[in-house]
Design brief:
By secondary structure, the chain is an all-beta fold. It has 2 domains: 115 residues, Roll (10 Kd Chaperonin, Protein Cpn10, Chain O); 100 residues, 10 Kd Chaperonin, Protein Cpn10, Chain O. Helix content is 0%, strand content 40%. It starts with 8 loop residues before the first strand and ends with a strand.
Length: 217
């Protein structure tokens, strides 16, 4: 594992097509704890993978930014609990360095789902109005039977629902309104929506219910 930097640096998207370097905010050493306020949660970020599957050391620029970690402190969040292993939106939250360790302070709504002890994305528990979908395989031939190059295959925008969250909270009644889709349904979703994952050669995506366009039968 590469040596840990005292001030972790990540790249975040900026306007007009530029990238801005954002340094994590270091909490002064005299403060030993961070107590999230409101519905925020503090997540200790998983370590980055420094080697490829073949054991080759990767340069920092080639590593995937971790988007998972364990909840170590929380405010009034209702859908997660302490020690949960959570997945969150890639550029969400405020990055903090606490006692030399990388953390991120998130709003509860930025947490995509809770991972099981096996860390398998296929068993992710989506939160709120989110839906976990196993993507369909891309077509590798045209209608006329011509073989397509890998990078020219049409991106699938449909798949099978594996899990659904408890639903969004109604502003007036404060009751959960469950998503109007069921596990096992085949659905179409907006092309550039959601957060994508790849695991064991399979494609997965977590989208909000509002990004689901139709059910197929």
């Amino acid at each position: 594992m590469a040596a840990q930097m005292t001030r972790p640096v990540t790249l975040a998207p900026a306007s007009r097509g530029r990238l801005v370097v954002c340094a994590a905010t270091a909490v002064p050493k005299q403060f030993k704890a961070v107590k999230p306020v409101g519905d925020r949660v503090l997540v200790k970020v998983d370590k980055e993978e420094a080697k490829s599957i073949g054991g080759v050391l990767l340069p920092a620029s080639a590593r995937n930014k971790p988007t998972a970690g364990a909840v170590v402190a929380m405010g009034d969040a209702k859908t997660v609990k302490m020690s949960d292993k959570v997945v969150y939106s890639k550029y969400a939250g405020t990055e903090l360095e606490v006692a030399g360790e990388e953390h991120v302070l998130l709003k509860e709504d930025d947490v995509i789902g809770v991972l099981p002890s096996s860390d398998k994305v296929a068993q992710l528990k989506p939160l709120g109005d989110r839906v976990l979908i196993k993507g369909a395989k891309a077509e590798d031939k045209t209608a006329g039977g011509v073989l397509l190059a890998t990078d020219s295959g049409e991106k699938p925008t449909f798949g099978t629902v594996l899990a659904v969250g408890e639903g969004r909270e109604d502003e007036e009644s404060k009751q959960r309104v469950p998503p109007n889709v069921e596990v096992g349904a085949t659905v179409m979703y907006s092309k550039y929506s959601g957060t994508e994952f790849e695991e064991d050669g399979e494609q997965y995506i977590v989208v909000r219910e509002s990004d689901i366009l139709a059910q197929l039968a």
